[in-house]
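Kindly go through one protein, given below as sequence and tokens. The question is how this chain folds according to its tokens.

***
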Amino acid sequence: VQLQASGGGLVQAGDSLRLSCAASGRTYVRYVTGWFRQAPGKERELVAAISSGGSTYYADSVKGRFTITRDNAKNTVYLQMNNLKPEDTAIYYCTTPRRPLDSSKYSDPHFYDYWGQGTQVTVSS
């Protein structure tokens, strides 16, 4: 499975971006897909996840601003990010596991097997 993340960029606070994660080699529909981010000097953290059934999970810091969706026909997962803040600055990674993952484990990056290359999001104040 190969994941290709795109859509990052340099924006101002309050702006929006939409990240895309396109998969090849396997369809998404079977397992959860997540977006993690990592800022310099910080640990990688889960931002949002969407299960094969469409259930969604969001970190408290992005609730009400970010929306994760999936287009199964295109094998693509999106992260719509609105009202961006400087603290959202990070490299964003999409990821999916090799096997089904219980929702209690969504936030642990060690349970994921396939990672995209990351896309930089920089939000200026």
User: Anything to note?
Assistant: The chain has a mean pLDDT of 94. The longest strand covers residues 17-24. The chain has no helices and eleven strands.
